[in-house]
Amino acid sequence: MLNDPLVGDLRLFCEVARRLSFVAAAQAFGNSQTHVSKRIALLEKTLGVKLLHRTTRRVSLTTDGETVNRWARAILQDVDSMRDDLSDLRESPRGSLRISASLRLGRSHIAPIVSLMKKRFPELEIWLELVDRRVNLVEEGFDLDIRVGAAQEPGLIAHHIAASPRVLCASPVYLDARGRPKSVEELAQHECLVFRERDEPFGVWRLLGPSGWGTVKVTGTLASNHSDVVLRWARDGHGIVMVGHWYVAEALAAGTLERVLPAWEQPADVWAMSAARAAQSAKVRVCIEFLKQELAQGEFALWKY
Q1: Main-chain phi, psi angles of 265, to 5 degrees
Q2: Residue pLDDT, tens place only, 5-27
Q3: Any idea what the CATH number is for the domain that residue 212 is in?
Q4: Residue 237 belongs to what domain range?
Q5: Around Cβ 302, how many Cβ atoms within 10 Å?
Q6: Which residue of 22, 32, 95, 292 has the smallest Cβ count within 10 Å?
Q7: Which N-terminal residues, if any, form the signal peptide (predicted)?
Q8: Assigned domain for 266 exists
Q9: Is pLDDT at 271 greater than 50 in this prediction?
Q10: Whole-number Cα distances in Å, 121 to 97, 116, 124, 217, 267
């Protein structure tokens, strides 16, 4: 059953349904668009229903297609779980594993760790998608979402991966010219470089320090939706930025950036979110443990510097 063509066709169909694109689904599976189209047509013939509306510009699900998509996702999850139970996945996990992560964390840490994981467990089939938004694990078919902060959506389980606070920092040039803030409240008087990581509040900084929590509304004349941009501006001396310590650890060690209010930080640990059902999967558990180990003390650990 594990290699039944019907199972493979259902996987292809779920990918087409998720992306509403034959081209994107073909690219994800390393097939041609023609191959995907033929397999979906065969699946429609096998099931005796029309699954998709096709035009030259778009693809959409029929009513029967929505029903099949819902059942197919549940069937495929059960197939993968059965494969887990039939094999010693602690030593040799296999099967598909879909992971999402934010752009910066994904590029700098998760992607190279996935490369190491693939070398360690060659039978895994891994899809890593880097997105600057909060994904819907169930609807979009992900096994894990690696995120900073563990928002507790209903039905999700949070697995703690690594401690990683956000810290305040600025270039020595800026601080020499404008002075070094002595309290959280004084941040409101400074140029602050603001960006939003995924669904974080924009322009409101909440920090934990010796006297408890402090909140300040910050402003500045430069803002962006990309962390690389605001970090560049900080190094250029334009203001104070709040970002993950892992993101600026190298710059702090080199002295191009300096901690501001070093006793204050914003807890922002790294978590792996999974659906309750997926959390029981052996390959998901193996992935979580591998991420924990590598982010704590591996070559691409968050605290490398």
Answers
A1: -155, 165
A2: 888 889 899 989 888 888 888 88
A3: 3.40.190.10
A4: 166-260
A5: 24
A6: 32
A7: none
A8: no
A9: yes
A10: 12, 9, 6, 47, 32
